[in-house]
Amino acid sequence: MDAQQTLRTEVEQLVRVHGRTRTALMPILQDLNRAHSYISEDAMLAVSDALNVPRAEVYGVATFYSYFSVKPRGTYVIRICRTISCAKQGDYHPAIAALFDELGIGMGETTSDGMFTIEQTNCIGMCDQGPAMMVNEIPHIKLTEASVRSILNEYRHAALAAKKAQ
Amino acid sequence: MDPKAVHGFVGNKLSFSEVTPRDGIRMAAEMAPEDVVAIIGASGLRGRGGAGFPTGKKWEFARGQEGSPKYIICNADEGEPGTFKDRLILTDFPELVFAGMAIAGRAVGAEFGILYLRAEYGWLREHLDAALERCRVANTLGNNILGASDFSFDISIRMGSGAYVCGEETALLESLEGRRGDARNRIPFPVQAGYLGKPTVVNNVETLAWVPCIMVKGPSWFAAMGTRKAPGAWLFCVSGDCKRPGIYEYPFGTSLRQILSDVGAENAKAVQVGGASGTCVPPAQFDRTMTPGDLATGGSIIVFGPGQDMFAVAENFQHFFCDESCGQCIPCRLGNQRMLEAIGRMRKDGLTVDGERNVRQLAQTMTVASKCGLGQMSARAFLSILNNFSGELPGHV
């Protein structure tokens, strides 16, 4: 099966879970975005055909929400909160500097091994425990330069372990 | 992930911890729906998302609608900067929120509930699904709830995907229907034509959590907590430059000064009340009270200590609105960008008479002409900082 056909099969499976209705569009895009770390053009076409929703509208939805991406991203998407309660903590700038230094990339970039992407995000509801960031769906709080480095190492180890298990 | 890992500090005893959700549902099950609406109406409970609409009125409107099915939607798209009470409520009291939804369903004649959870709280999903399952097993959700033959209600959870504007109820409905989160025009209101065009009640997490408490303890218990004009208590989320950030429950009418003293922020230079779309309060006004009509709030209190550059704060908030504007109406989409540029210029070059006039005109245009609350409110923080802290700008004499 070619890649496009594989995607269409995957979308059909998601349709069976979420239904063949317009209200299923968000849940289906959410699952695709999670599984592939982004929503490819082929994926959008497959969803458009499966739900009979115009391609422009699928694209419109896929590009509206900040958690969706239509470009490839790392396995782990790091979203560091840039809103005021986090951003004015003393540890905020050292924590971001540690992210950049540890991964060798800047804001909005992805590491060459495809493992990490760093993004900024708005308030993630951890204002009382900032600075904070999400790594995919998991929040990390009270960040310091040191804790950022050890968090990244944990994800590196998890990725290695997952690779070995395959 | 265990939600307790990011639980955070709770500064005083919360009323929510004193109520068994099941008792609230039982009372509603044994009562006529009209009487449930009447009890919530009599309590004076108002929406806790920020707009403060009377909950009883909303339910009464929805109850009077012909359409079917009707829907109860819990707005858990908490995104206002400095707000994190839904995080705590959904961690510690999810069954109270579900009970509130079921009671709302009983009151307006709805059997379907949807909890719209922001993407950033995806880590709560497993915890909430488990709580839903417990409710079904205990028959506080499902068919013939607690044996009442005419009371069935169940809840599904739907996720957001990262968009502040979806906390606005009509944008939330668009998102649930599989569209971009573009706010709708009203009329019709959601209670008339909401989710899939059907009568829909959209209530905030905290609003719904108070519902079973009011059922169990009575509307007069609730009303007695606040002032005559503003009954009840509220959860406040305190962050920023203070010794004890966290969640605090206060009755309406509590002064800002009292709160600052409790959280260890007596030396505050300014306090942002109501998040990015709220107002910045200078020390001369710390005796103002947390009451609709005085300091209205969605529960967010961000403290700024003596060292903070207030126009850097304004710039941060403005950046937030530029990111989060949905882009469908020009006053908000372009207005927020021009405002951000103006703040940047001001921080660099100071304020000219022309510059101030222009920026105030822009703020007024955004406030008057934006389609939804996002654009209508986004100049407030900047204006309150400009009005109270313009002395911090360069070249000021």
UniProtKB/TrEMBL annotation, chain A:
Its cofactor is [2Fe-2S] cluster. Keywords: 2Fe-2S, Iron, Iron-sulfur, Metal-binding. Pfam families: 2Fe-2S_thioredx. Belongs to the complex I 24 kDa subunit family. This is NADH-quinone oxidoreductase subunit NuoE. The lineage of its organism: Bacteria, Pseudomonadati, Pseudomonadota, Alphaproteobacteria, Micropepsales. The gene is nuoE_2.
From TrEMBL, chain B:
Its cofactor is FMN. Residues 311-357 form the NADH-ubiquinone oxidoreductase 51kDa subunit iron-sulphur binding domain. The keyword Iron applies. This is NADH-ubiquinone oxidoreductase 51kDa subunit iron-sulphur binding domain-containing protein. Keywords: 4Fe-4S, Iron, Iron-sulfur, Metal-binding. InterPro entries: NADH-UbQ_OxRdtase_51kDa_CS (IPR001949), Nuo51_FMN-bd (IPR011538), Nuo51_FMN-bd_sf (IPR037225), Nuop51_4Fe4S-bd (IPR019575), Nuop51_4Fe4S-bd_sf (IPR037207). Pfam families: Complex1_51K, NADH_4Fe-4S. The keyword Chloroplast does not apply. PROSITE patterns: COMPLEX1_51K_2. PANTHER family: NADH-QUINONE OXIDOREDUCTASE SUBUNIT F. Belongs to the complex I 51 kDa subunit family.
